[in-house]
Amino acid sequence: MTTIKAVRQAAPADGDEAGATVRLDGLTMRFGERTVSKDINLTIGAGEVLSIVGPSGCGKTTLLRAVAGLIPPAEGAVRIDGHVVDGTPDGVAMVFQHFGLFPWKTVESNVAYALRVRGTGKKEALDRARELITLVGLTGFEKSYPHQLSGGMQQRTGLARALAVRPRLLLMDEPFGALDAQTREVLQFELLRIWQDHPVTMLFVTHSIDEAVLFGNRIAVLNGRPSGVAELIDVTLPRHRDRSVTAMPEFLAIRERVWSLIMNAESGR
Ligand SMILES: Nc1ncnc2c1ncn2[C@@H]1O[C@H](COP(=O)(O)OP(=O)(O)OP(=O)(O)O)[C@@H](O)[C@H]1O
């Protein structure tokens, strides 16, 4: 099961399709006495994809939740387009590993819901939902209920729901983590295609090194207790990517680099 949380609608202005800028300034996240991550400084440009990897429990989800304004930082700040996040920011959508689709709603109602709660009229919301359903390849399943769908199809529905609000920033938390390897690969390339047609800024948390390299312009490797950014790796691959990039020597070299950093991180824990 996959959870999506879409946060308020903000249609991009004309000529402003590339997405939001994000800045983390000295971000420290704490739960009670426990400091999970400390002094994280990152700047993510409009339309950039930053992949975030690191050992289990190092604070990747916590970081995304801070960017989404769901939990406040203990110290430091998140800025989206220069504005300090101190609540639910406009134009941000989150996609989690577990969708949390409403089981009693059809695919089109699930997708339209994100718009309906933001005051979009029923017809407009349904029209937009159907556009998105086509985009994610679910035409013909508009009236299906989640239990009638495969995991991959539920994932597509969740993606459509996130995209329905025309986010300027997509926060992806292991979005394909619950899928079998084959479905995961199909959806990765579908998302890549969709993203290339509608580029927005993306923070992409994943346990898959291949996925991190495939999507990222850069990869932030988190490590330590509390965690910090151990390394920021530039992904020097062509921006337009398809399956062929996974055979490029640069792809393999970057994958090896990330792999060795994560192995070091895991062995140091
Ligand atoms: N609401 C919370 N209250 C207390 N502790 C929390 C809370 N949320 C997360 N934590 C703790 O913070 C740490 C970081 O959790 P987080 O889920 O951000 O890690 P992660 O890197 O995303 O892990 P994984 O890769 O396993 O998903 C963990 O030790 C977790 O137990």
TrEMBL record:
PROSITE patterns: ABC_TRANSPORTER_2 (PS50893). Signal peptide: none annotated. It holds the Pfam family ABC_tran. The keyword Cytoplasm does not apply. Coiled coil: none annotated. One of its GO terms (molecular function) is ATP binding. InterPro entries: AAA+_ATPase, ABC_transporter-like_ATP-bd, ABC_transporter_ATP-bind, P-loop_NTPase. It comes from the Bacteria. SUPFAM superfamilies: P-loop containing nucleoside triphosphate hydrolases. Residues 22-249 form the ABC transporter domain. Keywords: ATP-binding, Nucleotide-binding, Transport. PANTHER family: ALIPHATIC SULFONATES IMPORT ATP-BINDING PROTEIN SSUB (PTHR42788:SF13), TAURINE IMPORT ATP-BINDING PROTEIN-RELATED (PTHR42788). This is ABC transporter ATP-binding protein. It comes from Streptomyces niveus (Streptomyces spheroides).
